[in-house]
Amino acid sequence: MGLLEDKVVLVNGGSQGVGAGIVQAAVREGATVVFTGRRAEVGEKLAADTGARFVRADLSDAAQARDSVVQTVDAYGRVDCLVNAAGLTSRGSLLDTTPELFDAHIAINLRAPFFAMQAAVADMVARKAPGTVVNVISSAEHGGQPFLAPYVAAKAGLAGLTRNAAHAHRWDRIRINGLNIGWTDTEGEDATQRAFHGAGDDWLEKAAESQPMGKIGQVDEIADLVVFLLSDRSGVVTGSVIDWDQIVFGGLD
């Protein structure tokens, strides 16, 4: 049996990148999977490839974030596991971030997970059933680079929210954990490197050479850990925000 056999899993932000990897891994491990994304063509292709159910949603709208849970429950009667994997990584420093950019980061990176969790946990509590949530956060929540100011503000908020919600619902046997992923090889990261940092076609090779492990984060490896955290095999762990990175925070040379 797979790790998620007979589980209904919702992956918000699941049409590409880390989210898509999680969708694929959850299906492989036996789950019934629903995932959201903004681009219909991309989402429908992943749905056709995996057998997962695609729900088109703009998670910057809190109502649509909540509705992703409603649609999952309407389709399958419940939601057992929620993954918040959507992320906005556009750049901004303390000095040049506009209110509009700040609000966009809060909307995707913090508000959407908040209201999706609200709806999912409400379903679990109403059914008196255990459940699991994994929030894909970022190692940048520890401080990050100067050009990530609004991103860091939102992701640090999500890390705090993860711990708060886990504590609030531990007696409901709802386990809520987070994963602070580092620099990761995704389509979105490729676009970001080219758009904001003038990267050429060899950026990934150069990035790999600059890292202790000789590579940057891999989507399939992250997805496997998320599936483990969603599953019963992760035992009693809740309220943990795990640093999944090759940076040792606090270490100095």
Features:
single chain; 253 residues; alpha/beta; 7-stranded parallel β-sheet; 8 helices; globular; Sc_DH/Rdtase_CS
Question: What is the chains' assembly state?
Answer: single chain
Largest sheet: 7 strands, parallel
* Molecular shape: globular
pLDDT < 50 stretches: none
The percent range for helix content is 40-55%
Strand order of the largest sheet: 3-2-1-4-5-6-7
What portion of residues belong to β-strands? 5-15%
**N/C terminus separation:** 46 Å
Number of beta strands:
7
* Overall pLDDT confidence: 96
What's the helix-strand series? Answer: EHEHEHEHEHEHHHE
Question: How would you classify the helix and strand content by structural class?
Answer: alpha/beta
Radius of gyration: 17 Å
What's the helix count?
Answer: 8
Pfam family, one: adh_short_C2
Protein name: SDR family oxidoreductase
Family: Belongs to the short-chain dehydrogenases/reductases (SDR) family.
Please, could you describe this protein's structure?
The protein has 253 residues and is of the alpha/beta class. It has eight helices and seven strands. The longest helix has 29 residues, at 99-127. The termini are far apart. Belongs to the short-chain dehydrogenases/reductases (SDR) family. It comes from Streptomyces phaeochromogenes. InterPro entries: NAD(P)-bd_dom_sf, Sc_DH/Rdtase_CS, SDR, SDR_fam.
List the SSEs and their pairings.
Elements (H helix, E strand, L loop, with lengths): L7 E5 L4 H12 L3 E6 L2 H11 L2 E4 L5 H15 L4 E4 L14 H29 L3 E6 L12 H20 L5 E8 L5 H11 L5 H7 L9 H12 L10 E4 L9
Parallel strand pairs: 1-2, 1-4, 2-3, 4-5, 5-6, 6-7
